[in-house]
From TrEMBL:
Stated name of the protein: DNA polymerase-3 subunit epsilon
GO BP annotations, alphabetical order: DNA metabolic process
Taxonomic lineage: Bacteria, Pseudomonadati, Bacteroidota, Bacteroidia, Bacteroidales
Domain of life: Bacteria
Species of origin: Coprobacter fastidiosus NSB1 = JCM 33896
Matching Pfam families: RNase_T
Amino acid sequence: MINNFIAIDFETANKYRSSACSMGLVIVNNGLITREWETLIKPQPFFFSHWSTAIHGITPDKVMDAPTFEEVWSRIDSWFVKCDAIVAHNAPFDMSVLHACLEKAQIASHLPESICTYRLARKKLPFLRNHKLNTVSEYFQIPLNHHDALSDARAAAKLMLRLSEI
């Protein structure tokens, strides 16, 4: 079981993976949640698709004065050096957002392996009707405010811990 990881979740402003507009992080050390952190991000490119806003409720006026991804990363990059893995529910999406944002900001980074709680849940809980974050969270009675980046990251962290016990 991986005991030291960062659970991550992004919300995006539009179809571009580099358009992160919100990020939630939950740090787990020795199997315990030790820190939670979230921020709004001024997305690049700076435009919002109506369908994105309908999903997460973040609008251009909420992120107009938010830090850029480059500014955000300069505050948190050292956290990733200390962890064994990055955990996300549907990790291919969140990791592609992270990589696209790093590339857009021209930041080289060595990230740890990623673990997808969606895939892990499919393997360990095949009897569930689906393996969406809200479904698996409900199964484990994990509170969730879906499409809030911090809430989604917190749920992914708790899912990782619970799924590791199975």
